[in-house]
Amino acid sequence: MAPVMDLARSPLALPFPDMPPVDGVTLRVARADYKDWDRADLTYAELAEGTALAGVFTRNVCCSTEVEMGREQVKLGQARALIVNAGNSNAFTGYRGREAVEQIMAQVAHHLDCAPSDVLVSSTGVIGVPLPKDKAQHGVAAVLEATPCSWEEATHAIGTTDTFAKGATASAMIGDTRVVLNGIIKGSGMIAPDMATMLGYIFTDAAVEPQFFQQCLSAANERTYSCITVDSDTSTSDTVLGFATGKADNAILSSFEDAGADAFMAALEDVCRQLAHLVVRDGEGATKFITVSVTGAKSDESARRVGLAVANSPLVKTAIAGADANWGRVVMAVGKAGEPADRDTLSIGFGGTCAARNGLPVADYDETPVAQHLQGDEIDISVDLGIGDGRATVWTCDLTHGYIDINADYRT
Amino acid sequence: MAPVMDLARSPLALPFPDMPPVDGVTLRVARADYKDWDRADLTYAELAEGTALAGVFTRNVCCSTEVEMGREQVKLGQARALIVNAGNSNAFTGYRGREAVEQIMAQVAHHLDCAPSDVLVSSTGVIGVPLPKDKAQHGVAAVLEATPCSWEEATHAIGTTDTFAKGATASAMIGDTRVVLNGIIKGSGMIAPDMATMLGYIFTDAAVEPQFFQQCLSAANERTYSCITVDSDTSTSDTVLGFATGKADNAILSSFEDAGADAFMAALEDVCRQLAHLVVRDGEGATKFITVSVTGAKSDESARRVGLAVANSPLVKTAIAGADANWGRVVMAVGKAGEPADRDTLSIGFGGTCAARNGLPVADYDETPVAQHLQGDEIDISVDLGIGDGRATVWTCDLTHGYIDINADYRT
User: Fold this and answer.
1) Euclidean distance between CA atoms B154 and B244, whole angstroms
2) Maximum CA pair distance of chain B?
3) Which residues of B touch A129 (CB under 8 A)?
4) Which of A49, A126, A309, B198 is least surrounded, with the fewest CB atoms within 10 Å of its CB?
5) Which residue among A62, A192, A318 places its CB closest to the CB of B331?
6) What is the ipTM of this complex?
7) Is A356–B324 a contact, with Cβ atoms under 8 angstroms apart?
8) Is the pLDDT of residue A142 over 50?
């Protein structure tokens, strides 16, 4: 999506982190002028030969050409370049949209002397308008000649309605070798569960077999991007790609049996969680960051679904916006989730204070600490279902006038 | 739920209809003072001996005592009285909530000299506070002595955040006998699909076997209450009850083979649809009434789910609020529904004008008539999936600042 108004920086924004270089990755940006704006909107990442590729994608069945092609490319497991177009999602644009993507792939492949399938393309912005091929061609030509840029510049260039640039970094020891993982992401609305996510990219110098890299990214996705929601709406273009250049020259990772694989997985999940949280922190109109912890569910997956039912409930989200300890709305949301639950074993808490236990309001419940907690901008809701060992944590933001402001007047 | 502010009458409100008497039904209201307010909040309907009962209820697993008991009472198929408490939903209140309901049933049963199971009780309002037994006792005593009241007075007394009284009436010929069906309903938020509905009551003088009455009400529910949504949140107390006094002395209906059964079913569905529409017209913050028509789906049920995905999408609802013909958001919502769909056979229209056909924007699409249509307050969205014969119609309202105003400051 593309900005149509000067959006104020989210009150939940975090500063862009210091991100070290990743050996084998070079970033460049240029202006394709996909919209009538004064900014870079085409981003290019050049990747060393031998870079391993992994990816997760939206489950929206009306997905874009970029997503359809990306799914195929991930099966091949290798990449030499990434192009990100901002301002036009190229979704629902039929053969003309596909031609534009193929043109970009061919142009970059010619420059790098690689296979077109080694060139990944993502696009984000308005649905239903084919990506203009002439602008793409000039933009790609310009970006291939541009001087390398910083992580923060590249992150700004992939953004649309984002009010701040979102990056995260971590490192891990594989044997004696320290590997770096840098991630950048864009997204603030049309963010929903049960899918991959917005547009996110993780770059590492680690040497990882593509299949194992995919296994790690899918697992991290389950516990991070698939556990956030802003507005329950699932984009047609959501994509997270991982690129591992192998330039760190560690002993290549191919399974969790390998020394350092656990550390690599932990660092990857750390970066993914940081990025997922940043998307929530830039949720359209968000003023509060909400963590919903569900325990005692039938299974972890059931816990995740209950957590998302709470996190997606407009009545829960507006109650938090109003700093209202309305635990009855949490009960309602648990009950509508369609998951196993028992009214009489259910407990609800805010900020560590239990408001209802075993199906009844807590005797002598003192709302004072809860009211104080809800005045802050980091809100914890805990739900214990009391019927099993399943658990999950889900993150969302509140629903405010800001969301209406941004979305009721998007294209005009 | 209970009003905490002076809510302006919905701009989509309709006048209360002229409703004829229904032989065998007497309505009375009184003040139980469940909240600190200056209004009747306890409603009583006395029903003739031999009244047949039918009902549909919320699917929220954290349902109220009233719903649990009502489900059992409906199996018995008979009723002598209905009590509706407004201002306190009595949900999530454990044994104390149950005691209050049993007390009301016993008190009314004693007065009427009937079985307690012949007395139906509904409650609506804040969750988690047991219905105060003393207030209920005084209120019931007062209502049993009150003078009969009008349909409109009773409808006001069952309301909470409602901004207007919602009633509907229809009639049908069974043989030579004209029977009357009157319905009243309350509800404006926490309205969601896949459940029975808000609190609605349908009274008829027709003679109908309870099992057939239930069959008719369940079928009507599938095409009316289960096809509306305001905010995707499903209440713990939603209930629709039907009462058939038999005082019209028609030949009793026991199956669709009976003469007049089709006419009765049509009139019942008419009343249910009118009432369902009125709830949407009073949707919290609503300024536009939206009809989503889905055709070409794999099945009718699949069409209903796709329709509800569109109707529940915050991005679609805010686009309509902003009179924005953003059909891309409709595509997104169709794609996230989790139902069979094919991007390349999908068509989307607004107000009868096709915006996208077979997966592509319509060539030379003129947005003028669409823009004009979206300025009105009755909006039609059509979705053709192009893969089957399934169809459904779903109704909702837009998502506006009014919804945030009402719900971000509900209890304070």
Assistant:
1) 18
2) 73
3) 361
4) A49
5) A62
6) 0.83
7) no
8) yes
